[in-house]
Amino acid sequence: MLWIIFPISLSLVSFVGTWTVYGLAFSNGHVCSLSDWGPDNYCRGNQSTACCMVPTISSSGTLAPENSLFTASINAGSFLFLLFCIFHHAHIMERHACHSMLSKSALVFGVVAAMGAFAAGNCNPHHLSLLHYLGAAISFMCICFYTVLLTALTEKCTLTGYERVLYPLRIVSTVCQTIVTICYTVLFAQDDYFYRHLSAVFEWMLSVNLELFELSYAVEFCFFSSFMISNLLSKRDEEKPLMMS
Questions:
Q1: How many angstroms separate the first and last alpha carbons of the chain?
Q2: What's this model's pTM, rounded to 2 decimal places?
């Protein structure tokens, strides 16, 4: 029953961390307000003083002192998300091993998404913009596939008995994640401030939607146990001699 804390912690770390970073950046005048749609104070070209940046998650963690908290929050969230992917895979393998291929595919996308987020969090967009945005793009794309596969597993695998409620909720969340990701990608590439600001709003929507999606797995983790992890590891050890023979 204590495992229910894990998805709640994952969602809270991501939510509290990113919004605290935004709050610090806004209070220091580094990013514009999410509610301010006027381009008057927007930094243009090489201008860096007496102006503010578009309030994306990345720009909120660009400058000191909030950049340290940004890196710490993304690192913690990426690590917890990686564990989340592994634990969910262990749960599926213990209860519905017949869907192992689908679960392994989801695990791959989840691990790559966590690695992309880790790269984005540790590469400051001001100094290493290419690596930062490449990591973020990989993470956003893989998360879309991950949510699709986990929603499919919700339909196929009975883990809690509440799938009739969880499945439609996760369909809505997955559709929102996919559509908003596409909109965010298209708008982020625009030069006009209005579209850039709208892309920032979409990015925050993606973050909150993913956190709610993760939070819904508190139900599954009520039925999770640590022996499922040990069983997954023991199965891996059993497969090694077969692969070598």
A1: 41
A2: 0.92
